[in-house]
Amino acid sequence: MLKKLLVANRGEIAVRIIRAAQDLGIATVAVYSAADAESLHVQLADEAVNIGPPAAKKSYLNVEALLKAARDTGCDSVHPGYGFLAENAAFSDAVTGAGLVFVGPSGDAIRLMGDKVSARSAAAAAGVPVVPGSAGRVEGLKAGREVLTETGFPVMIKAAAGGGGRGIRIANSLAEFEQAFPQAEAEALAAFGDGGLYMEKVIGKARHIEVQVLADGSDAIHCYERECSLQRRRQKVWEEAPSRALSDGLREELCASAVALAKAVKYSGAGTVEYLYDHEADRFYFIEMNTRIQVEHPVTEAITGIDLVAEMLRIAGGEKLRIRQGDVSVKGHAIEVRLNAEDPAKEFAPFPGQVAELRIPGGPGVRFDSMLYQGYQVPPFYDSLLAKLIVHGETREAAIVRLIRALHELKIGGLKTTKPLFLALAADPAVRAGDVHTRWLEGWLSENAAALAG
Amino acid sequence: MAQILSPLPGTFYRSASPDQPPYKADGDAVSAGDVIGLIEVMKSFHEVRAETAGTNIRFIADNEDPIMAGAPLADLD
């Protein structure tokens, strides 16, 4: 078992990790930038180390400062959280090289899954269906034209080194393709220093469904799926589990494919295999694997009763998987919404400031993961996630009713937040019916955004 | 002399990206409406424009400085 953990992150996920570690009797060290000295994670950890100025590059992304903090405080392990250095293979290697345990997969596993082309090849080799497209990097326009016979139109041209929705172009015809391909090549080279491209069929009305896996380097299990189809600018805003779009048979097939991939790459820790689900064709396709704990992990915890962060810490401490696949079962339905410091009535403009008033929702089936407290000054330097509200009910309908109840209980004074968005979504007939896809929310927002003041 | 103030809190950048030259160097002339820098607030980027023209801009804030709303970014003659 790990003895002392450096939490190399901030915000709600640092708080989440500190809580899991303390529950297991592991001592915790928080790190903070000059802008985060008053943060909740600093208050809750056993010790805290100032690692630099506000800019993330000089603090939370500063590998030297993080390793020094771990050494100086006698830590034996580092948890990267999500974002920042969580999927940086060199950081995983550096932590291991310093004689510490990295709570996550090896640098090699992160590299394999971080490159879209090698991840796709690994998935295909493990028998996981992939979106029709190029088998690897597409070398030149001529090779690109040949791939079109597989994909048809519309086709997506992606930078192999891209991520987070960057470096993506869509062509609807051969003429558009011939124009877009060289542009994408030049852009990828300029943006990522790597002009490598690959191509994929565009799945029209797709749902985003992802499978949570836990693995110990040899064995792997899944903890069923989450659906995250409600997205704005490719950022998830509302996540739920299980997905009601899947039949039981397809669910088992989907989850088994994620386990096969995790085993094939000798994965260790918690990971998420992401898929597009084509509802009309009733088929799923691999998109990518995220080699970290994800923002939306609590919905899986709600329906399975598994503490995913605690399991990550146990696995990192050298334990074999404690949970057998047959022991994982789904109970009820859970929904998470992301409360961001953004004004949904003004195109989601960021809204840092001071929390003048705070009323946290509670009662049965309600969980609130956050770094907020009354008087907290939300700094402008980091992402806008303030809190995650997670509700659990016997059915999806009950969970939505509970979500509305909890949102009404929640009061965050002094800031604009995305709360009005979720009240409106929870009342929307399409959301109530679960009849959405990954581009649904943007269309909805163009018609309803003005009504989100509140 | 006029001062250009930051409209937002966040991180100040003097160029569009790390491999680009600064929008303006000390001593440059500035027209009204010129972009003089970026403020990154919660991962979104906002251009800062000069409201008035001047013949000589001198930056007070450095690249990547943390900035509060209303803080002076540059003097302008």
Strand order, largest beta sheet of chain A: 13-12-9-10-11-14-21-19
* Subunit organisation of the chains: heterodimer
* CATH third-tier fold name of chain B: OB fold (Dihydrolipoamide Acetyltransferase, E2P)
Uncertain segments of chain B are none
Notes on the protein architecture:
The complex is a heterodimer of chains A (454) and B (77). Chain A is an alpha+beta fold and 454 residues long. Chain A folds into three domains: 4-103, Rossmann fold; 132-201, ATP-grasp fold, A domain (Dna Ligase, domain 1), CATH 3.30.1490.20; 206-452, ATP-grasp fold, B domain (D-amino Acid Aminotransferase, Chain A, domain 1, 2-Layer Sandwich). Helices cover 34% and strands 27% of the residues of chain A. Chain A has helices at 11-23, 40-44, 63-72, 89-97, 107-114, 116-125, 140-151, 174-192, 248-264, 297-304, 308-316, 396-409, 419-427, 429-432, 440-448; strands at 4-7, 27-33, 47-52, 77-79, 101-102, 155-159, 168-171, 197-201, 206-216, 220-232, 235-241, 268-278, 283-290, 333-340, 342-343, 349-350, 353-354, 357-359, 366-370, 377-378, 385-393, 411-413. Chain A has an eight-stranded antiparallel β-sheet with strand order 13-12-9-10-11-14-21-19, with helices on both faces. In chain A, strands 3-2-1-4-5 form a five-stranded parallel β-sheet. Chain A is globular. Chain A starts with a strand and ends in a 6-residue tail after the last helix. The mean pLDDT of chain A is 94. With 77 residues, chain B is mainly beta. Chain B has a single domain, classed as RNA polymerase II/Efflux pump adaptor protein, barrel-sandwich hybrid domain (OB fold (Dihydrolipoamide Acetyltransferase, E2P), Beta Barrel), CATH 2.40.50. Chain B is built from no helices and seven strands. In chain B, strands 4-3-2-6 form a four-stranded antiparallel β-sheet, with no helix packed on it. Chain B has a three-stranded antiparallel β-sheet with strand order 1-7-5, with no helix packed on it. The mean pLDDT of chain B is 93. The interface between A and B is medium-sized, with 17 and 11 residues.
